[in-house]
Amino acid sequence: MKKISKIICVITVLLLGSGCKKYLDVAPDNTGTLEYAFRNRNEAENYLFTCYATLQQLYDATANPGFVTSGEIVYPNNLTKHPLDETGFALLRGTQNSSNPGLNFWDGENHGQAIFRSIRRCNIMLENIDKPADLSTSERKRWTAEVKFLKAYYHYYLARMYGPIPLIKTNLDITASTEEIKVKRATVDETFAYIVSLLDEAAPDLPSVISNQVQELGRITKPIALSIKAEVLATAASPLFNGNPDYVSLKNKDGVALFPATYDANKWKLAADAAKAAITECEGAGMRLYNFIAPANITVLPDSLRKVLTLQNAVTEKWELNTELIWALNPTFPFQGYATPRLTQKGVVNIFSNPSLFAVPIAVQEMFYSDKGVPINEDKTFDYAGRYSIKTGDNASRFYVANGYSTIKEHFNREPRMYANIGFDGGIWFGNGKVNLTDLYHVEARGIESFAGPKDINTLNITGYWPKKLVNYLSVYDDGFQEISYRLPMMRLAGLYLLYAECANEVDGPAGDATTYTDRVRTRAGLPGVVTAWSTYSNNPNKPATKDGMRQIIHQERRIELCFEAQSGWDLRRWKELQSVLSQPIQGWNLYETQPANYYQPRTLFTSVFGVRNYLWPIKDQDLIVNPNLVQNSYW
């Protein structure tokens, strides 16, 4: 056993550039052996949960590149108090480097998880799963499938960040030579093929539904495995990895090119087929798009608010009640207080119970459609040029904008998802303890005297917009913060529909399933179908008729539907669109002004630092010294 521990430490040093760490977390002191860990069913189950441990740590959105580098939410960089790790948010300001990378998931440093260590845990489980004599055949097959999924997902997480990675198919034998230990990076195509092969092996032996929801919700199912397979294949087919000219010169030390030199259209076909199979499995398991069912204390609910609550609760509903939830992690989302504005005088008094620091840039608010279902800069009926002029809320808009409150025209006549996603000055905030339609809260954010306005540097929303979607409407911020917890989805059926629509468009163009599945999501959001909306209201009516035009529509649809869910950052990377999005200055409103005409003046907070090299993470310089067979990502 000492020899095994020694060789694992050597691998850790060579691959990760870090010291040997205890990772047999399930064994008590002085008995950290594989024989103990797999001596019976109970101990093996403990080790299975150790394989899940790193996955569960991924619940922390502030360490998720898809959340912190998407430009959807920004965080101040001048706080005197630091209630959370700011490493991820700081990357937008140009702090990334190769000497000490932020969100380092290769080594498990700087708010990153040690993913390679997690893969080795999975290998140990797979190598020893046959040892417990009291483990039933059915359980052994299921646990093996779960661990294969986890191993695949850990490889996938690294591949999204780093591109080509070393494939840790098995743990090295104690007789391995020094050269064998000095692993090199597999090609992009080899990396994705291996991930898919593990998912294919796992899926047949996973349950379609969780029968014991009290004890097993959060464990891997067949719908999860098939949905992630579709996402993996769509990622492999996307411009970042499919014939990307930016990385044609990236090669291993032996001269092997790590990225494919040419575009392969068949990759989209594989992704489309996988997405359709995942949809069939999910729907067969009873999943459907979520619709809000009002509790008994809400006796009257207008359609406009019902739609908002449907869209908001598609994320914040309890996972056992959410009909479209494919996958969520067990830990609950811990940042509702960062996404909630102060709505009451007691909230101001208890300001430190709710920092309200998650700020949404103006550009993200403007990404949402008009109520006609097209972009606001394309809508022939929308006064885009006059969008910052002042308008007062009236009776017709009272469930979206407070009656009699002055805000800007841009906040009127927008799609329901905008009102479900974003809290804004004058915007209705249904819930927070109030459900009486004649006495609802609204956000007041202008100047220091307003409840939600700037009070001090540590509780300041720097844009004047809040990610409302991340707050359960039943959570109450008044005399302290009483939170109704939820789990942030990793995958929803609406996202899977749009993934399939994207792949179908790349294969067959906009006719057929590309439009059909996009319209399923739009219909639930209260919008007309794509063709109807563009032909009737857009100044570019033929946009949905071409593959390029439909691609733009689906991309924006995914960004809107999955906003704030740690998905858009990954999408924008694989599409190679993040650089364009972040090239625009990050702007907010003139927070300290009280008069609407003065408050609603866009001000630039900062300009993001993001170039071609930032699409992939750098490998730490020290790792390249320890293992000379590793090569650095391009431009680092």
Automatic annotation (TrEMBL):
<dbReference type="InterPro" id="IPR011990">
    <property type="entry name" value="TPR-like_helical_dom_sf"/>
</dbReference>
<comment type="similarity">
    <text>Belongs to the SusD family.</text>
</comment>
<dbReference type="Pfam" id="PF14322">
    <property type="entry name" value="SusD-like_3"/>
</dbReference>
<feature type="domain" description="SusD-like N-terminal">
    <location>
        <begin position="113"/>
        <end position="226"/>
    </location>
</feature>
<dbReference type="GO" id="GO:0009279">
    <property type="term" value="C:cell outer membrane"/>
</dbReference>
<protein>
    <submittedName>
        <fullName>Starch-binding protein</fullName>
    </submittedName>
</protein>
<dbReference type="InterPro" id="IPR033985">
    <property type="entry name" value="SusD-like_N"/>
</dbReference>
<dbReference type="Pfam" id="PF07980">
    <property type="entry name" value="SusD_RagB"/>
</dbReference>
<keyword id="KW-0998">Cell outer membrane</keyword>
<dbReference type="InterPro" id="IPR012944">
    <property type="entry name" value="SusD_RagB_dom"/>
</dbReference>
<feature type="domain" description="RagB/SusD">
    <location>
        <begin position="377"/>
        <end position="636"/>
    </location>
</feature>
<keyword id="KW-0732">Signal</keyword>
<keyword id="KW-0472">Membrane</keyword>
